[in-house]
Inverse folding.
């Protein structure tokens, strides 16, 4: 990521991060991802006792991070934050609020690990593995 000619790269145009240093935004994103990964794990652990609450929490977290990586809950927070920050910096560079999918389609992400625990797997365990029934 080319941060320009200054010592520390700073967002200037971005509607959410204007005036903030690139490194500060990265740290914030890493912290948010790590906190949400912990919340996701807690929701999954409590799924049997409080299904409705767990489902609402899991769906909220999936909606927030899945566009960036379907395996976000098991991905290193720094790696995912770098991917998101690359996109946000590209938006800053272009001064255009384009969707993450546009950048993702240009450079495919590495394949997810084979033993990932996804929301779909959780639904299958929760509802007995039946698919296509309705």
């Amino acid at each position: 990521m080319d941060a320009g000619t200054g010592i520390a790269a700073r967002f200037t145009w971005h509607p959410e991060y204007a005036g903030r240093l690139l490194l500060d935004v990265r740290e914030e994103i890493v912290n948010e991802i790590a906190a949400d990964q912990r919340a996701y794990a807690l929701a999954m652990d409590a799924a049997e006792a409080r299904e409705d609450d767990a489902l609402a929490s899991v769906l909220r977290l999936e909606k927030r991070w899945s566009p960036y990586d379907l395996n976000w809950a098991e991905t290193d927070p720094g790696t995912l934050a770098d991917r998101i920050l690359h996109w946000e910096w590209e938006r800053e560079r272009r001064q255009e609020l384009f969707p993450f999918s546009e950048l993702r389609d240009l450079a495919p992400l590495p394949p997810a690990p084979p033993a990932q625990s996804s929301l779909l797997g959780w639904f299958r365990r929760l509802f007995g593995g039946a698919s296509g029934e309705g």
